[in-house]
């Protein structure tokens, strides 16, 4: 009766079979722990800390503490030396970017609207005919003419008639210079570009009695708020200060003004519209527009107008006119990144134009002349003054030297006047080599690295020119 029943000895089929027991690992004993302790050297670390007697964890013996203290002293001395060098840096943290305010408050030009344009002979057929499809009650006079100009019919009628009435020419020029309607302004630009384009025989396509005059174009640029001082105008700071911000800045019609000035210069074979002095003044204005940051996107238009003005002068007029223009600009632009902006832009847009190269060289000459306070532009004396600057002198103004390097290189190599003067060229190359090698890479002063890099770049260009521009740069 005490024996278990048969079913009690049977295993439950629903229960999982027991897993085979694994043999346990050997239990780590105290001896193993001690052996691991001594083999890793942890006992020595404890002994070092105990021997130090004080100080934060991590310090070793007395010799090691001494080395650490010496390193701290050396680091402190290095930091103090860096502070002393930092005090010797220029007071200027940065150089202001290029750019000047060329346009101030724009004046009201509502009084420039032509009156009596409805009476011109070109529109007479539209008034007498009743089957042309125009609603004359709505589109009368100037309104009808604006629609014809924007649709291109006015230009077609002018070409078909072979002439342009003075009233029509004056009216379209007014729209080009002052209209706020973008489509009307663009159409007026296309109209004047077409009628002032010479054909294969160097003749105008239509008879034209009215041409854009100096007085009209000068009045327009002054209405735009032009502030850059010229021999005939003075900038008005008070006027620009009180100007409404919405009316300050580059005018929307400046593209039309540049295009019509350029077109007038290109037809000098047929008609000389500007006198040399008037063309000089417009050239000063166009060059000054290169300093307006709001006109950065118009570099192609500005370049075309500048080239047209440069080529407008006769061979006998150009040299003296170029000197007058560069003297006028040099007296009004500062010796900073603004003067370099002018020189660089003329370089970009001149290409192979020899006159623009001469203009760039003369502009650099006049700027250097004013910078050194010379009454006569003596190139040898300027070169001596520039090359006498010691880059290792603590009082060396590297920013000024950077400007002088760019201007001097443009003066010597923009034109061919000094390329054959070996003594001047060699002196300049030696100084460029001096600047590129004697300014240490650890020199943290303002514009010191730029002077070193610019001198190296200019020297490389000199080697390229000496090799004939074939791309094989040889050691010099």
Describe the structure.
The structure is a single chain. With 476 residues, the chain is an all-alpha fold. The radius of gyration is 40 Å and the shape is flat. The termini are far apart. 56% of the residues lie in helices and 1% in strands. It has helices at 6-9, 30-39, 42-52, 62-87, 124-128, 142-151, 153-161, 166-178, 182-195, 214-223, 237-241, 254-265, 276-288, 299-312, 315-330, 337-350, 354-371, 379-387, 398-413, 422-438, 448-466; strands at 163-164, 207-208. Strands 1-2 form a two-stranded parallel sheet. The longest helix is centred in the N-terminal third of the chain and has 26 residues, at 62-87. Helix 13 (276-288) packs antiparallel against helix 14 (299-312). The chain contains 21 helices and 2 strands. Mean pLDDT is 80; it is low at 45-50, 134-139, 230-244 and 470-476.
Question: Could you list some keywords that capture this structure?
Answer:
56% helix; single chain; 476 residues; disordered C terminus
Compose a concise summary of this entry.
With 476 residues, this protein is mainly alpha-helical. The chain has 21 helices and two strands.
Topology summary:
Blueprint: H1 6-9, H2 30-39, H3 42-52, H4 62-87, H5 124-128, H6 142-151, H7 153-161, E1 163-164, H8 166-178, H9 182-195, E2 207-208, H10 214-223, H11 237-241, H12 254-265, H13 276-288, H14 299-312, H15 315-330, H16 337-350, H17 354-371, H18 379-387, H19 398-413, H20 422-438, H21 448-466
Parallel strand pairs: 1-2
